[in-house]
Amino acid sequence: MRELLLSVRPILSSVMTNLGIKEEEWFDLLDSSTDSSFADIAMPCHSLSKKLKKSPMQIADEILEGVGEDLCDFCTLSSINGFLNFSANSKWLNECLQNHILDQRLGVSLDEQRTIVVDYSSPNVAKHMHVGHLRSTVIGDSLVRMLTYKGHNVVRENHIGDWGTPFGMLIEHLIDVNGNDTINNVDLAIFYRDAREKFDSNVDFADRSRERVVKMQSNDPDSIYYWQMLVDQSLVHFNEVYQMMGVLLNNNDIAGESKYESLLSEVVEKLEEAGLLHESQGAQVVFPEGWYNREGNPLPLIIRKADGGYNYATSDLACIIDRVQNVGATDFLYVVGAEQSQHFAMVFEVARKAGFMNKKITATHVPFGLVMGTDGKKLASRTGGAVHLKDLLMEAIERANSIIAEKNPSLSNDERNEIARMLGIGAIKYADLSTDRNNNYTFDWEKMLSFDGNTAPYLQYAHARICSIFSKANIDRKDVQRAIISVSDEREISLAKAILSFPEYLDKAIVSNSPHKLATQLHSLAQAFGTFYEFCPVISSETDIFESRLALCDLTARTLEQGLNLLGIEAPKKM
Predict the structure, then answer these.
(1) How confident is the model at residue 482 (pLDDT cuts 50, 70, 90)?
(2) What digits encode the pLDDT tens for the residues 114-124?
(3) Measured in whole angstroms, how far is the alpha carbon of residue 537 from the centre of its chain?
(4) Which architecture does CATH list for 115-160+256-366?
(5) Cα–Cα distance between 288 and 285 in angstroms, integer?
(6) pTM for this structure?
């Protein structure tokens, strides 16, 4: 839609001016336009009725009459029920496709670079990553990929829970169990559970744990040694899961709570200097303007608890100071569950009031819903606990392996295992990313691993099928990138529009921090290719359209592969 509007804008602007429609009103029309597919636009004229004292139908007809034949090189234009309807013609589509096939970026332009910190994943040390970390990790990773592709300087930050009161009991339990030995090959979930049970039942152990927290906060060398041991063992687990998932996070992206420990007292000082700090029931708090509890009293953001300990808000404010002063960030994205919306809204307001970030810096909470089981409840293991993410990934690969073995028994074991990995991991990620992140979604193995519908296997199979066309015909795909493209069949035109919509839907996904908008476009592209492939012969086509259709196939495959990559999903060449 965007490219077509840019093409016709000079002509339409002239007509609008003659009708007494100002430029800002013309822009409002553009903003309210809708499109059912690329280059099929319905522009409403209803908002002009009051000003021009004419019906929307009359206004649309007058614009249509004023344009006359001037848009013939771009599109056909019609007036229906007060809407101006644009539909790009073959000539314009052919020119766009020709430019597209020579462009390695598939029409995606680079934005003016900004430094964007994306805070995502955030597991806790000494605990297994579980299904509760899935959405933050895959949504955050996709946003990182899309923003990087658009030319931004993206800083990944994994704000792991690696500091605070629980580490007293964990260190003491580590000393009791292992002494000075390492913690290698310890099951983190069992280790944490045992430490918690001992803390709750053993008074002496609980006292020692609290003393250990004080030592740790005072940088006692032995305490820091044991703390680092716990962190290192946890990172082994985190990295194993990240590598299985194919996400970009690594040790260089760790920015845990411990990183900001030295800044916490500075946060308190700065808030006090700004006159924002108040005492409430022994705690030091800030009362952000406009926030009230159920009783109608001002709602506090706790900075320092009555016992002297710092709160999550203090750490988040320290993060902002660091990201502005040391990272030079212009934008923050916090990919964190919807239940934290109020917390971040209050933190952002306090940060601005205190001068930690100015109006030029944007801070955005990117919330998401829950992963639900087929029983309609929050997804849980058979024992009722949180599902370990590693177990979920392994099961996905095993299920995909069985499906691939049945569909293509001629594959070697290595080929099948590799494709199963791509399909299994891709299925989990796509089921998440194809859903509006604000909504809950149901984790359904049968649906997400299906080769039909809006699933990763459906898109991956479309890509593999295109690759097989070139493989079976022994044609180098680079050769067809010099072909002259000419679309005329309605299925070719639909496919062309789907291909050319990729840059626009990528921008829509980025602006709204919503990967599902890109996923929707990729699914539409795969559907358009399926219809094209069914009704438009490629290898057996006549000589004059043979190379053009091959070029369409190549463009489709490249777009699917790039789009899936931006979602963090691999595109197999055979299946």
Answers:
(1) confident
(2) 999 999 999 99
(3) 36
(4) 3-Layer(aba) Sandwich (3.40)
(5) 10
(6) 0.91
